[in-house]
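Task 17 of the worksheet. Students: predict the tertiary structure of the chain below and write it out as structure tokens. Keep your answer in the requested format; marks are given for formatting as well as content.
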Amino acid sequence: QVQLVESGGGLVQPGGSLRLSCAASGSILRPNSMGWYRQAPGKQRELVASATTGGKTNYADSAKGRFTISRDNAKTTVYLQMNSLQPEDTAVYYCNLHNLLNDFWGQGTQVTVSS
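Model answer:
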């Protein structure tokens, strides 16, 4: 099993920044991809960004140019630096770890962008 612990959500004004972190522990198989998804009220969960153990990254169009995903050297922690946040970025953000056998999810962290 894999456990994912997220941190870094909160309330921020439009144009502000937040950094989300997600630490993975347990039986982490490689290769894998770690990433962030988000779900706004009444909407489906959507990919925001992901990064593989091989260094490949993928971004939703809405995240390109504003968000940056990165992983630590041990490849057990993933970060999401979010800049120029807008009200439409308000959602619960979920950390995900995907390997060849399973998908694991964090508990979610709320990001609210409001003045």
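Marker's comment: The longest strand covers residues 18-26. DSSP finds no helices and eleven strands in the chain.
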